[in-house]
Amino acid sequence: MPSPSLQVLPARGRVVGISGCVRQIRDHTYHAANHRYVHAVAEVTGATPLLIPPLGAGLDIADLVPRLDGLVLTGSASNVEPQHYGGPPSRPDTRHDAARDATILPLIDAALAAALPLFAICRGFQELNVACGGTLHQYLEEVPGRQDHRTDREKPLEERFAPRHEVALMPDGQLAGLLGQQRLEVNSAHGQGVERLGAGLELEATADDGTIEAARVIDAKTFALGVQWHPEFLTHIPEQRALFTAFGEAVAR
Question: Looking at the domain assignment, is residue 7 inside a domain?
Fold first, then answer.
């Protein structure tokens, strides 16, 4: 497959929502998203990124969704609260973001119903799975036979998010068709992982230890894909950039 052109900006003039998190910085509370997602959307797809604040019931989702041309669900240091998928209580030191859960889980339902192009990344992939009725491993490194997929926080950022292991792409899947290959090298920075895929999701990629790494929405009329890795850190790699380009093409349509 030829490398995607660095000049292709298919979704110029469109608006892509980017999920935000609650962040406490000293004595102030912020709504925030990592700049990597913002720049990946702006620089690869050409769309205007719009941060979606985690307002829970205070966000009028019915009013928001028609204003969007696409939606990116971001990764985060927080985990989906286990009550949303029937899991046991988390350990006391687990970071959660109840406001984000209350915002994004219903937003996913609305976005899928509206056939909005959707790209779900890391925590966003886990949210997509939970919204579809799936379950999560809260501590993936403790599951027998699984590797530790967490990042080493003592290492420099660029090293932590560099490609780390391969995933196998399903032979007849969307990812294999898009990239024209059966394996893909990805980074890894997650403690939770998908346990059981939700209804309406189809497996797209697995790690060699069996961890579910990607899935798509089966009946989606447009791009609706979730990945467990962080392609926003890897847009200099043609195959990773191609994921945002394909999302941008769907947004443009």
Answer: no
| Residue in 122, 149, 213, 239 annotated catalytic | 122
Active site residue 122: yes
Question: Reduced to 3 states, what is the DSSP secondary structure of residue 8?
Answer: coil
Query: Which of the residues 21, 195, 230, 239 is marked catalytic?
Result: 230
CATH number of the domain that residue 150 is part of = 3.40.50.880
Is residue 230 annotated as a catalytic residue, yes or no? yes
d(CA 96, CA 84): 12
Distance CA 141, CA 193 (A): 9
Q: What dihedral do alpha carbons 104, 49, 11, 119 form, nearest 10°? A: -30
pLDDT, tens only, 124-166: 999 999 999 999 999 999 999 999 999 998 899 999 999 999 9
